[in-house]
Amino acid sequence: MTAISSKEDPQPHSVRLADMLRSWLKIRELNVLSVLLLVGILISIFSPYFLTTNNLMGVFRSFSLIAIMSIGMMLVIITGGIDLSVGSVMGLSSLVTALAFQHGAGPILAVIAGLSIGLAVGCFNGFLITWIQLPPFIATLGTLSIGRGLMYMITKGVPVTPDVPDSFTFLGQGYIGFVPFPVVIMIFMTICFSVLMRQTRFGRHVYATGGNELAARLSGVRTSRVKFIVYALSGLIASIAGIVSFSRFVSAEPASGFGAELDVIAAAAIGGASLSGGAGSVEGAIIGAALAGIITNGVVLLNIDTYAQQAITGCVILIAVSIDIWRVRRKGR
Amino acid sequence: MDKNIRLALGIGFAAVALSLGVSAHAKDAKDISVAVIPKVAVPFFDDCNKGAQTSADKLGVKYQWVVPQNTQGSTQVQIIEDLISKHVDGIAISVNEPKSVESVMKRAAQSGIKVLTYDSDSPKSGRSMYIGTNNEAAGVTMAETMGKALDGTGEVAIVTGQLGAVNLNERIAGIKKGLAKYPGIKIVETQGTDDDLAKGVSVVETTLRAHPQLKGIFGVSQVGGPAVSKVLNTKEFGAMKGKLEVLAFDDLPDTLKALRDGSIQGIMVQRPVTMGSLAVDHLVAQIQGTDTSPPKDIDTGVTVVTKDNVGTYTK
């Protein structure tokens, strides 16, 4: 009887390289990334203006807010929940920041005010979901309506347009080099949260809570605390988007952020989020937001009937997610 | 790089630059592209599109009609940015939210694009001119019509669209100014509807129930006509038809029908087709440099349409 060797023979270099390539190709995000690149190539064939720096940076800036919010939404969806209130929170924090300026606050105080309202609503959502045990759909639907109502009550239907200092407008209108500042914020947050989700214990706990909450809790994961934190984060992130949005347009409209939650959820869904939890990635969400963003841009550049825009976006979303699901099932992952 | 190649490239670049510089001065009509942006997809702007398209066809320029998906300022900002990337030569826009488009319109103007506003203005955006209804004057005309019809006394209500819309608020200001001549007329209610028909119907019903002695209604935006007509054709309020002096804005098919069946007594009809065609005319004139006089705002005015002239008015 020969002993089974416990050490593997070293593999030849070429096989290792092939394995590395194969594992790269297995990256789930590649599915949606390829759809994104395909649409991008299609648009650039028909319009010479698509691939210009100005246009691309403009497109990135326009979907950066949805992308930023989709980071928070992705975390929430991974835990098996949903946050319908993000559009509302974005608008509300826009409004609070505007009101702070209107009452003479400086930029730092106004930003803190905006962030606080986002954190407050996020914590309130977390409280409703982890303490009162309301289903996330209902809880965040409730906060969405409360938020909308508050906005109309406070603004009485009229946009708030205070004077703001240049140091503040830099947030939404400034550039670092040729990159618009909102895009910088988006990249920075993507990196931070990507690291958070992939390399930290907290990230692992988020995936565990979503994958199988009972098993996670029995394994010692404090699932209630994890869920509370993700909803608070979602609210805080939405308020970041609201502040940057206000900085860009210098006008807090009563209907600001209306409907944004659907765009954010779509971005997360394209990014591989499973609405039953446990799957998806931050990078995927950003790619999802990018896909929706370039379609909007492409419609204007290619002079496509703008009435067709929503229909086109819907079709592309369905195709992108179908390809993704098909690949996942084929690989048996 | 080889000296000769560098020389050849240098001459090549200079030639291209020179030809670009020369061609930038006198643009051929078929190389000009203009884009017209409405507020949102409602029938009023279909008329603007018609007028603009006709003018564009007549002048032989490339024309693009870009409709925002909602009334938020950010949506129009994004559209203008995309158009700047596309290097259009002229943009005409009916502004949803005046402040949010200021910086992007200034940027468009700086990059050489001719910009003007129509129907709804953003006065501080650096646009060359505003073509549209002088809303305050239209409001005054409405007040005059109401004052004469009510013989100077009675309670009236104002039904408007978006509470924050600049053009609508100017009309209301004009109404109040015009009513100063008729101290016996009191405005008992001013309600917003976001130009949503369902909300409009509910607002009109509530107003009629709360003020049974109401004598007149000012429909300041396009939803007023259809909303009042729907309400006055129900059993509950059918008796009030003809007893209320209702003045509406914009000649939607439902509004015209209501005028003919007596629910509405007068419609202030703007001239959207004229706005559209003048917008394109002036953009192209500015692009080609043939607009010699400094651009001035144009008031396209309103027509007061009643049963008498409903078949013959133009816009």
Descriptive notes:
The complex is a heterodimer of chains A (333) and B (315). Chain A has a single domain (32-331), classed as Orthogonal Bundle (ABC transporter involved in vitamin B12 uptake, BtuC), CATH 1.10.3470. Helix content of chain A is 73%, strand content 1%. Chain A has helices spanning 13-25, 29-46, 53-78, 86-102, 107-130, 136-155, 166-173, 181-199, 201-211, 213-218, 223-249, 260-270, 282-301, 309-331, and strands at residues 175-176, 179-180. In chain A, strands 1-2 form a two-stranded antiparallel ribbon. Chain A starts with 12 loop residues before the first helix and ends with a helix. With 315 residues, chain B is of the alpha/beta class. Chain B is 44% helix and 18% strand. The model of chain B is unreliable at 19-24 (pLDDT under 50). Classes of the chains: A mainly alpha (333), B alpha/beta (315). Chains A and B meet through helix 3, helix 11 and helix 13 of A and helix 3 of B.
SSE topology:
The complex is a heterodimer of chains A (333) and B (315).
Chain A: H1 13-25, H2 29-46, H3 53-78, H4 86-102, H5 107-130, H6 136-155, H7 166-173, E1 175-176, E2 179-180, H8 181-199, H9 201-211, H10 213-218, H11 223-249, H12 260-270, H13 282-301, H14 309-331
Chain B: H1 3-23, E1 33-37, H2 43-59, E2 62-65, H3 73-85, E3 90-93, H4 102-110, E4 114-118, E5 130-132, H5 135-149, E6 153-160, H6 166-179, E7 184-192, H7 197-210, E8 214-219, H8 224-232, E9 245-249, H9 253-261, E10 266-269, H10 272-288, E11 298-299, E12 303-305
Parallel strand pairs in B: 1-2, 1-3, 3-4, 4-5, 5-11, 6-7, 6-8, 8-9, 9-10
Antiparallel strand pairs in B: 10-12
